[in-house]
Give the backbone structure.
Amino acid sequence: MLTLEDSGVATEIEVARDGAEALDFLLGQGAYAGRDTHKQPSFVLLDMKLPKLSGLDVLRGIRANPITALVPVIMLTSSSEHSDMLACYQSGANSFVRKPVDFAEFTEKLGCLQAYWLGVNEAIAAI
């Protein structure tokens, strides 16, 4: 996420190339076996359309595991389908954000997400 890095986020940013890698990272399995899963992200930006495992399937996997169940998940999508929004919220998404086509607008939205989830939101510690 170069956009977040460029905005001076003072935190680590992990990027997964597909849904399976994202879930492996969060759950400390596969290539990430041995990762300290007690250290979870402040929030997860999750695209609905990912290779290998959809964002919705990753969200369901996050919510199904006590290690990750409380991690805030923001679904990021270009979809404007009501059914997609409904499916995300029913599966436990904390937020549903449409990606603007314009890069400047996209950068501005990411800045707002960062400000809220890292500066305003009070996160709860994992179980």
